[in-house]
Amino acid sequence: MPSRIKVANPNRCIGCYSCMLACSRTNADSVSLIDSAIDIRTSGGIESGLQIIVCRSCIDPPCARACPTGALTPRNGGGVVLKNELCDSCKVCADACLPRAIHFDREDMPVICIHCGTCARFCSHDVLEMIKTEVL
Asked: What is the count of structural domains for the chain?
């Protein structure tokens, strides 16, 4: 059964970036915030709280529908799969992503969450969790 990331306890996030660094280390062999598929941002200053931006595993993903080259295809259980060789870096997918969870790396390629769960495993504050999704 496929799994996906869920933001379970957003108020527990302290902005330590452990989830982001774990993601980039696992999926891009880098220790850089730009290579992370999850993003932690302040929302109006640190006193206002933090925003956890991650793929919400859309069943009918607008980013895949918008992709003119077919580089993004729906993933079983929600979300998308990226075919790097088809991507022309047009950024239409990022514009179509409702939670703004798609950004581009140094090579101008989209950074897409693969729902591997690394971020959840490294979050020591139980902000993130992996949940099972139904097969479509």
From this structure: 1
